[in-house]
Amino acid sequence: MKNLKIKLMTWATACMVVLGACDTDKLADLNIDPNVANEMDPGFVIAYSQLQISGEQFENWRTVLIYQSTMIQHLAALATYWSGDKYLYNQEYSAALWDRAYTGYIKDLVNLIDITDPTVEGQEELVNYHAIARVLKVYSFSRLTDVYGDVPYSEAGKGFADRNFFPSYDPQEFIYKDMLAELEAAHALFDEGAANPGNQDLFYGGNINQWRKFTNSLMLRLGMRLSEVEPATAESWVRKALEGGVFESNADITYIQHTDGPEGINRNGIGEVFNWDGSNFTTDDQGLLSRTFVNWMLERNDPRLEKLSWVRNGGEPRGLPNGYNTNTIQDVDPEFTSIARRDDYSRVNPLFVLRDAPMIFHTYAETEFLKAEAIERGWYAGNAATHYAQGVHAAMKMYGLYHSSLAVSDAAIDTYLAENPYNAAEWQRVLAEQIWAATLFNEYEAYANWRRTGYPVLTPVNYPGNQSNGTIPRRLRYPIGEAANNSEAYNEVLSRQGPDQFMTRMWWDVE
């Protein structure tokens, strides 16, 4: 077998050099011999990439919490720097995911796919490493394209290998269709008889059967994303995913169980934002549960709310309305005469946002709700109500991943299902709302599925100076450096996709 080589860079350089996606000033200072390569364990790269995808404080604070969690009305905040709550534009926050992905795990995964190619003589035994890397790449790009729209894809991550520092942007239609084809190819490659990364795989410990199910479940998610723009294409991929075998229980959930150190990359990035010290959230205590989310749960007598809500003053759950600051909040809450009033509102139960909390990427509950949707669309045989009930049960039991005390009891779930039976006449709303509830803290998916379906019906805010005319943004904006440093590609994408603004819709967002 050939020694595994990280081409055109040392691992230390890869971890330390921080490049803009196309920053010519920094590129001018690069001095890397393109003929030098160092050996690297591919299992280490997989583990490190998984941790990078989970994310550090930087992008979890900005992209996940400040923008997506508030736009989708899981959380709300009074502080104006929580830009997504008020549809304000902060260029650094908007670009956070892009900056982290393209300077980190995208280039690592592109390189790993190359150096584990099992069609190369001597690398045949690396087939599982190669397949895992391809799935991780798809997962990473699905987030990027769902947040920004058209993005560098086919030429991305090749600055070292091909000296291409000015990648073109691929149309989202091309990206989606290629990602789905990549998942199909990766699924066919998995081989339980070949070597695998074992415990270096932080998702599944090298369990190839679970990787197959994750691959198909991701195919189901991405295939369904096309339901409104290309229903026939969506149906073909949804059928293929379901026939190939998807998640079967909560034991299949894709997540990382983080630790509280020794380095930041090992910690849960959302947990780092809240930074619970045993009494308080010490880094950022601004994000509270949204009134929209709390009221939705209250109306349904949802047993998850008592697990989620922490009211410092010991009162009943109370959600903070989105779109207000410390002065205007008195328009809807006249008692909010001092900041101490915040203690009457619901914070997130600290057990969900510890530094060693799990980061959940893909759930069995979501798969069950999408199965029900496929049945309603006539794309799959079965009973939609059964899959709805199984999805609800899985979503409520899933809280036990955070702490055993948080899992909802079977009796409480049965009561909820009795009080909130499946409504086939409104299946689109019912299933989309359940996905919204189940994807709290996975705001990438919550935001994307809301744009696809239009549910739940959210009430936009119209904060002074907002950048979306008082409507919920449909995307985040590209880094400002792209216009200057990659101008040809940037201008071309604007001519195709539309202005680089919050309200420009991406290809699949036609709801």
From TrEMBL:
<dbReference type="InterPro" id="IPR041662">
    <property type="entry name" value="SusD-like_2"/>
</dbReference>
<dbReference type="InterPro" id="IPR011990">
    <property type="entry name" value="TPR-like_helical_dom_sf"/>
</dbReference>
<protein>
    <submittedName>
        <fullName>SusD/RagB family nutrient-binding outer membrane lipoprotein</fullName>
    </submittedName>
</protein>
<keyword id="KW-0732">Signal</keyword>
<feature type="signal peptide">
    <location>
        <begin position="1"/>
        <end position="20"/>
    </location>
</feature>
<dbReference type="Pfam" id="PF12771">
    <property type="entry name" value="SusD-like_2"/>
</dbReference>
<keyword id="KW-0449">Lipoprotein</keyword>
